[in-house]
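Q: For a teaching handout, I want to show students what a protein-ligand complex looks like in token form. Below are the inputs, and the small molecule is adenosine monophosphate. Please produce the holo structure.
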Amino acid sequence: MKILRTIAATRRFRSQARGRVVLVPTMGALHAGHAALIRRARSLAGMAGSVVVSIFVNPTQFGPKEDLSRYPRPVSQDQTLCASLGADAIFHPPAGEMYRADFSTWVHEECVSGGLCGASRPGHFRGVTTVVLKLFTIVQPDVAVFGLKDFQQCAVIARMVRDLDLPVRLVFAPTVRERDGLALSSRNAFLAPEERAETPSLRRGLLAARAAFLAGEGSAAKLVRIVRGEISRSARVDYIEAVDSATLQPVRETKHGDTIALAAFFGRTRLIDNIQLR
Ligand code: AMP
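A: Here is the structure, written as tokens, with adenosine monophosphate included.
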């Protein structure tokens, strides 16, 4: 497995690659959720193709008061995992390789990125779309794999790919969870034991709302109340919303295929999750 630290080395790797190139963009601190994406990438690439995992804690998607400096960076552990899953290369650039001191060009999706996490994390999705477009132009993958845990991110990237005619196929993979329902996240490591104990209430709330929807409850407000009622009192809810899965616009009356998405703080740690109503 190659460790690519520069854009020039990555371009050389790309020009020598035979078969399909599949990219899995990550910020590292890899867990079983990332591993599922890498396995999926391996099967999409086939024997002849190449799997590239990018590991880059992208500074431009963090707000000034967010957890950029304390974000975990277990580099050698990540490399071992990628190698064991059959990745062909890791693209792991230093921040200066991706952003020059006078960097001034941004990609800004203006519709899908406005609500939900976009409303509470101003500038976050501008950082995401910009870095993902850069990764696409550097690695030039045929296919890129993302996780549906970051449901809004998937929708924003899908819109960018469509609007800018980017020649890449997107694959979205299901959320991998702990046995008690908590979605795996690199940020789960920040949770104190008593906070961790309360986190399964997110999934319980979403499952209760979906059960109510399937039993005939259509009102978005009522479904949101059901979710909120399950979530531990010690959590601080950022948002719970029922939205159309493609446009991410809020709905009043839910329909088959809509999504309920949420974000909540357990102590200082902000967790997100979502469920599709079907
Ligand atoms: P991150 O390193 O958090 O930026 O995530 C990198 C990719 O892994 C994104 O496409 C995420 O949606 C995906 N991902 C993160 N957590 C999970 C999970 N629990 N299950 C599946 N995919 C995930």
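A: Two things your students might notice: The beta strands are 2-4, 21-26, 50-55, 89-91, 143-147, 169-173, 236-243, 259-266, 269-276. The two ends are 40 Å apart (CA to CA).
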